[in-house]
Amino acid sequence: MSERTHSEDCECDKPEIRDSFKEGCSKEQIIKCHGEEFWNSLKREGN
Questions:
Q1: Full domain range(s) for residue 18
Q2: pTM as predicted
């Protein structure tokens, strides 16, 4: 996978926080952490 921008304070990368979300990270968290382009690529892949 190509290099992507990533926020240092991404809650989703902390297992203890990530595990507290039944459905995984929210759209808002993913966009905050990885950017909207990353979110759109996930949607295109059907995840």
A1: 11-45
A2: 0.48
HEC string for the chain:
CCCCCCCCCCHHHCHHHHCCCCCCCCHHHHHHHHCHHHHHHHHHHCC
Which pLDDT score is estimated for 30?
80
Asked if the structure places residue 4 within a domain, the reply is no
5: in domain:
no
Angstrom distance (rounded) from CA 36 to CA 34: 7
pLDDT in tens, 1-17: 444 444 455 766 666 66
Cβ atoms within 10 Å of 5's Cβ, excluding its own: 9
The answer to the question of residue 41 being in a domain is yes
| Helix 36-45 with 27-34: angle, nearest 10 deg | 120
